[in-house]
Design goal:
Rossmann fold, ABC transporter transmembrane region fold, 2 domains, about 60% helix, 18 helices, alpha/beta, disordered N terminus, about 600 residues
Length: about 600
């Protein structure tokens, strides 16, 4: 098995991309006031944190060591220490307070930006054409709206502000060191140079390790998704052992990549701890010598030791923040790549549908292909009169379902014209067109929620209307027998109902929404004989006063049709009533004979 094929397209994890970063930062514009508050709070907290060692140094040098030599009495020294203690306490409170404000506002900002991006991404996805959506794996789209957006939240709520704080703290440490003692500050700086080199090396090693982990994580997810979905085939053909071997191979690669990532971090952290100790040792060694020669006070030495500790903690954090930054860059790239893809059905219609739609449908030399060079409809022309029921039959691939997709503009035809009541359907707003023409498909999709909610589907209607719609298609009886009737919660996809029950609810949904044109696309193809009998009873009510197109393979369901259109190769081959087409002994006759051998 070729493991390269498992992930579809590999994720490329970027270290830093200025274009993506610019687009991410644009998401902050609506919240610029909050950003200002975060930056101000961060600066105040940083300054207060850096000032604490300096206050300690002043207290030690001025009021603890040799204060009598300065002519300061013990009482005055205690008062001075009290003042510095209050200043120190004030700095601690300021650090705590403004750190809390900064962290809270950063988290709040991250959540708001995440919400905005989720809404933008969902709105963009909802407006894309069916052709676009069918080329995107559902798991990939879900991952964009959830996982990738979450990485952006981490970036804004923790990494960006922590990065600013760490950098400002590190710069502030060296400013404070040079203000306290330039010579010892230069010595300290010399011990930091190897740390900078190690951090740069770690950055590249961590990036490669992270990319490797992401690649094998993507592959193992793809393998799991595919084989769990096809578990029935795996078990039927007895390939459990082979599947387990393949999974173990991928899992082993993921383990090795994880261990490689751990090795990088396991080396980096002890090295930083080592150089922290080296820096402290250098400060104590050289500082003690300078102190013995009275060139450096003990308070300054204590301040140096405190400040260098504050320098190395951000170095450790920056190494871990870099990994999150990589994840945010990759997530941002995937999000913006999806947002930049435009494949919408044009919605430029300005003509309002009349209050009373007649329901006349006309295809005039309509051509369409899903893939270039592979036409599905080839200059198809036909007309359906208002209130007429017309069945469409033909072999698989003849273009039957395509007609339903084009009429509702889930896809747009490439040639010819489709008319509704004598006007090009492109002249109507999409929302009005789809409210007027509603298809009922064989594969019914029900949402998580109550039966009542699935019938109403967002339309404002009272329960009596819903019950009446269910009664018309004979769904009321089984709905009433459910544990909580119309308030029964359905699981995802309506998996706690039978196929026939789901289909009956879909019929009730159509009646409740009262369209003028109904398309039944293999709508009874998956139900048992008894359920089909119930549906056929409701169909007469459903189709009364409405124009309807009935697409079916089971010819027994279309004897009632006013006319039957027979398609072949994307063209209209025959047209007439059931009896006329049987007498003609053409393609329809052959289809009928295949289904009912000896029944003619």
């Amino acid at each position: 098995m070729n493991l390269e094929d498992l992930s579809g397209q590999e994720e490329i994890v970027k270290g830093y991309d200025p274009v993506i970063m610019k687009r991410l930062l644009k998401a902050l514009f609506p919240y610029w006031k909050i950003v200002v508050l975060i930056v101000v709070s961060l600066l105040i907290a940083t300054v207060a944190e850096l000032a604490s060692p300096v206050v300690m140094q002043r207290a030690v040098d001025n009021y603890i060591l040799n204060f009598s030599d300065r002519g300061i009495t013990e009482t005055a020294a205690l008062r001075g220490l009290g003042r510095y203690a209050l200043i120190f306490l004030f700095l601690l409170i300021a650090t705590l307070l403004f750190s809390f404000i900064q962290v809270y506002l950063a988290s709040y900002l991250g959540q708001r930006v995440m919400r905005d991006l989720r809404n933008r991404l969902m709105d963009h996805t909802l407006r894309q054409s069916l052709g676009f959506l069918q080329t995107k794996p559902v798991g990939s789209l879900v991952s964009r709206v959830t996982n990738d957006i979450e990485t952006i939240n981490e970036f804004f709520s923790s990494v960006s502000t922590a990065f600013l704080k760490d950098v400002s703290l590190m710069i502030g440490v060296f400013i404070a060191l040079f203000l306290l003692d330039k010579k010892l500050a230069l010595i300290t700086l010399a011990t930091v140079v190897p740390v900078i080199i190690i951090t740069l090396i770690f950055r590249y090693k961590a990036r490669d390790a992270y990319r490797n982990v992401q690649m094998w994580t993507s592959r193992i997810n793809a393998y799991l998704s595919e084989h769990i979905s096809g578990m029935g085939i795996v078990q039927i053909f007895g390939t459990e052992r082979r599947s387990m071997q393949e999974f173990s191979q991928i899992d082993g690669e993921l383990l090795r990549s994880r261990l490689g990532e751990m090795m990088v971090f396991a080396l980096f952290r002890p090295l930083i701890n080592l150089f922290t100790s080296v820096s402290l040792g250098a400060i104590i060694y050289f500082g003690a010598g300078m102190h013995s020669r009275q060139g450096l006070t003990l308070g300054v030495l204590i301040a140096f030791i405190n400040l260098i500790g504050k320098f190395y903690h951000p170095v450790m954090e920056l190494s871990e923040q870099f990994t999150i930054l990589q994840s945010a860059m990759a997530g941002g790239e995937r999000i913006f790549h999806l947002m930049d893809q435009e494949d919408k059905i044009p919605d430029k219609g300005t003509k309002r549908l009349p209050q009373r739609v007649g329901g006349e449908i006309k295809f005039s030399r309509v051509s369409f292909s899903y893939l270039p060079g592979e036409p599905v409809l080839k200059g198809l022309s036909f007309k359906v009169n208002p209130g007429e029921t017309v069945a469409i039959v033909g072999y698989t691939g003849a273009g039957k379902t395509t007609i339903a997709n084009l009429l509702t503009r889930l896809w747009d035809h490439q040639g010819g014209t489709i008319y509704l009541d004598g006007r090009d359907i492109r002249e109507y707003p999409l929302e009005e067109l789809r409210r007027t023409i509603i298809p009922v498909q064989q594969d019914v999709f029900l949402f998580s929620g109550t039966v009542e909610e699935n019938i109403a589907l967002g339309k404002d209607m009272d329960k009596n209307q819903i019950i009446q719609a269910a009664k018309l298609v004979h769904a009321h009886e089984f709905i009433s027998s459910l544990p909580e009737g119309y308030s029964t919660l359905l699981r995802e996809g309506g998996s706690n109902l039978s196929t026939g029950q789901r289909q009956l609810i879909s019929f009730a949904r159509v009646i409740a929404h009262d369209p003028k044109v109904v398309i039944l696309d293999e709508a009874t193809g998956s139900v048992d004989t008894e359920t089909e009998r119930l549906i056929q009873k409701g169909l007469s009510t459903l189709l009364t006063g409405r124009t309807s197109l009935v697409i079916a393979h089971r010819l027994s369901t279309i004897h009632h049709a006013d006319r039957i259109l027979v398609l072949s190769g994307g063209k209209l081959l025959e047209e007439g009533t059931h009896k006329e087409l049987i007498n003609k002994q053409g393609l329809y006759y052959n289809l009928y004979k295949l289904q009912y051998q000896g029944g003619l």
